[in-house]
């Protein structure tokens, strides 16, 4: 199982799980909870949520899903920029902890950059570390220049992660952001690695490459190739969202796939890597 290492030395599997839109539908709720629990029981540790998702519904569902499993989970949530003042992060974090039914987050991210000065937000994050409410902090949707700004802020604890849109649909971060994060010891978390289950999974190149691979579940699928591709980078942690057991098991099995040089070349031929800086896209 591929792993990534956070600046404080904690090591987690490079495959995690997302939970955006979970908890929004009563008819899917039981499947979503089963999917998260199965993931954790299979050794996936990172569970990603945010106060924004369903205005707290995702956090509540995650809290229910990880009951009794909290110690196995590396729990990540995010604060909205509108709550990111020094005092605001404390209030928002307390509310997230309440919904999640826990007393500490493993990682707390600023969801995207807003108008609050970074110094304020980072001071708030350090207060939370000191209070034992979070173990580490990071950012999301920050491009390379914004990461330089983060690095320039004096902070008692380091930025641990940058969560960005990164998939075969959005290869922009390969130009310089992935390298910047790696060399500054920051883990890149790739969100929407499956292109949100859309057109990407119908890309002919993914079908062709999938035909050359197998996992313990049988012939590989285009989604598994898309995920294996994101996971090929040693500093990237991917957080696909799987609302069903079938998808969760497929995503777990995707970790078995090692793409060959020929596979990677064929993918590059069909979906070119960035040749110049592209502004970071976000969903
Ligand atoms: P993903 O790229 O993870 O795609 C999720 C979609 O793919 C769902 O429709 C899911 O269906 C489907 N899917 C999952 N596994 C498979 C599979 N093996 N085969 C085929 N289809 C599959 O999109 P998300 O936007 O959900 O991104 C993942 C996570 O990243 C979010 O849930 C959230 O936690 C985080 N995120 C963070 C953002 C940020 O600003 N920081 C922004 C967006 C996302 P089903 O649900 O039916 O299994």
UniProtKB/TrEMBL annotation:
**Which annotated residues bind substrate?**
111
Which keywords, in A-to-Z order, does the entry hold? Oxidoreductase
Organism listed in the record: Komagataeibacter saccharivorans
Molecular function (GO) terms for this protein are:
oxidoreductase activity
**CDD domains assigned to the protein according to its UniProt record, in alphabetical order:** AKR_YeaE (cd19138)
- Which positions, given as ranges, span the membrane? none
**Any idea of its EC number?**
1.-.-.-
Protein name, UniProt field: Putative oxidoreductase
Locate the site labelled Lowers pKa of active site Tyr: 78
**Which stretches make up the NADP-dependent oxidoreductase domain?**
15-271
Q: Which residues form the active site?
A: 53 (proton donor)
């Amino acid at each position: 199982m591929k792993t990534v290492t956070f600046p404080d030395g904690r090591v987690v599997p490079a495959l995690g799980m997302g939970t955006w839109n979970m908890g929004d539908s009563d008819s899917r709720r039981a499947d979503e909870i089963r999917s998260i629990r199965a993931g954790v029981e299979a050794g996936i540790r990172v569970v990603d949520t945010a106060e924004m998702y369903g205005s707290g519904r995702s956090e509540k569902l995650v809290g229910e899903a990880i009951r009794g499993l909290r110690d196995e989970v590396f729990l990540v949530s995010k604060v909205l920029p509108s709550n990111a003042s020094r005092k605001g992060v404390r209030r928002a974090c307390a509310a997230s902890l309440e919904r999640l039914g826990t007393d500490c987050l493993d990682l707390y991210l600023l969801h995207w950059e807003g108008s609050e000065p970074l110094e304020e937000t980072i001071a708030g994050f350090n207060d939370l570390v000191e209070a034992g409410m979070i173990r580490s902090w990071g950012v999301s949707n920050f491009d390379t220049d914004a990461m330089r700004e983060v690095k320039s802020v004096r902070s008692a604890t380091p930025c641990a992660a940058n969560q960005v849109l990164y998939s075969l649909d959005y290869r922009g971060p390969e130009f310089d952001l992935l390298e910047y994060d790696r060399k500054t010891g920051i883990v890149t978390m790739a969100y929407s690695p499956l292109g949100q289950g859309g057109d990407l999974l119908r890309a002919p190149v993914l079908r062709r490459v999938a035909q050359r691979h197998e996992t313990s579940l049988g012939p590989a699928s285009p989604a598994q190739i898309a995920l294996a591709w994101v996971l090929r980078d040693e500093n990237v942690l991917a957080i696909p969202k799987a609302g069903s057991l079938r998808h969760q098991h497929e995503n777990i099995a995707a970790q078995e796939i090692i793409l060959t040089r020929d596979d990677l070349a064929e993918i590059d031929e069909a979906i070119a890597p960035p040749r110049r800086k592209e502004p970071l896209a976000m969903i």
